[in-house]
Amino acid sequence: MSDWAPPTPAMPPPPDPNAPAPMVEVTNVTKAFGDVVAVSDVSFRVGPGVTALLGPNGAGKSTLFRVMCGLTPPSQGTVRVLGADARADREVRGRIGLAPQQDALFDRLSAHRFVEIAALTHAVSEPASAADRALELVDLDPRVDKPVGSYSKGMRQRVKLAAALVNDPDVLILDEPLTGLDPVQRNRMIRLFHDLGDQGKCLLVSSHVLDEVARIGSNVLVIAQGRLAASGDYRALRRLMDDRPLRLRINADRPRDLAAALVGGSFVDGVSVSADEVIADTTDIDRFGRHVAAVAKELDVRLYEVQPTDDDLESVFRYLVERRR
């Protein structure tokens, strides 16, 4: 049984007296578009280092980021970045870097010119040199003079990241920045995030990939259906998720015989059967995997596939929301 539990989303957790001052503080924030509530009563505080914002597509991550950057006002609640309202304080806006999820670049420009323009919008001194440094940080050659419209998805992602870094911000907000990157570049960018966090910068990095979050940062905010479903250390969250029953779909040539043999096994919590598959619930996936193969072999049943049906983010969030109620 885990000793970790999600906080009540309507109230921010009590401050840790030993923790550094929060660099981003979100208090009871709601954002609605007409009758559609995209973010509902979200509260959290984050300080220096890397924090992962985990949620499925459509959960409200991008809307929350836009509110934090001052690009759109909250319908209710307050956001403080570096102690100020980014929407009202231009100086604070200049200390924020944003890499949006949207793939919106000026395709006719070179990467260097695009990042240089980003530097100019922040009134960065020596914008050309700043663009050089930012592109080199993300492993792009600033001397390449070809339009970003010809770049791959991964290269375009890194151009957006360079534009977010060009003003040397204290707070970096990165919306799905690893999408489209190959494994080598993912590792390099995650290493860059950690290096920046170690320098005292605050990074909020969103992802919809559960296992990716473990590498991004140990501090995790989980958002589901516009609400904060959980927050805390990733390892505690992972332990909590490991306690929940996992449902598996088993395709076999004789599903009824297999289901009958599985019923009552100590490694199975429940079994149902249809014309061509068995649905089994288990809280011990490793033990189940070992035993189902042995049972099938003993019965001379041919297994075609053993596949989790709900080991995805949507089921994780449903579990967390139900647990919170």
UniProtKB/TrEMBL annotation:
<dbReference type="InterPro" id="IPR027417">
    <property type="entry name" value="P-loop_NTPase"/>
</dbReference>
<protein>
    <submittedName>
        <fullName>ABC-2 type transport system ATP-binding protein</fullName>
    </submittedName>
</protein>
<feature type="region of interest" description="Disordered">
    <location>
        <begin position="1"/>
        <end position="21"/>
    </location>
</feature>
<dbReference type="GO" id="GO:0016887">
    <property type="term" value="F:ATP hydrolysis activity"/>
</dbReference>
<dbReference type="InterPro" id="IPR003439">
    <property type="entry name" value="ABC_transporter-like_ATP-bd"/>
</dbReference>
<dbReference type="InterPro" id="IPR003593">
    <property type="entry name" value="AAA+_ATPase"/>
</dbReference>
<feature type="domain" description="ABC transporter">
    <location>
        <begin position="24"/>
        <end position="250"/>
    </location>
</feature>
<comment type="similarity">
    <text>Belongs to the ABC transporter superfamily.</text>
</comment>
<dbReference type="InterPro" id="IPR017871">
    <property type="entry name" value="ABC_transporter-like_CS"/>
</dbReference>
<dbReference type="Pfam" id="PF00005">
    <property type="entry name" value="ABC_tran"/>
</dbReference>
<keyword id="KW-0813">Transport</keyword>
<dbReference type="GO" id="GO:0005524">
    <property type="term" value="F:ATP binding"/>
</dbReference>
<keyword id="KW-0067">ATP-binding</keyword>
<feature type="compositionally biased region" description="Pro residues">
    <location>
        <begin position="1"/>
        <end position="20"/>
    </location>
</feature>
<keyword id="KW-0547">Nucleotide-binding</keyword>
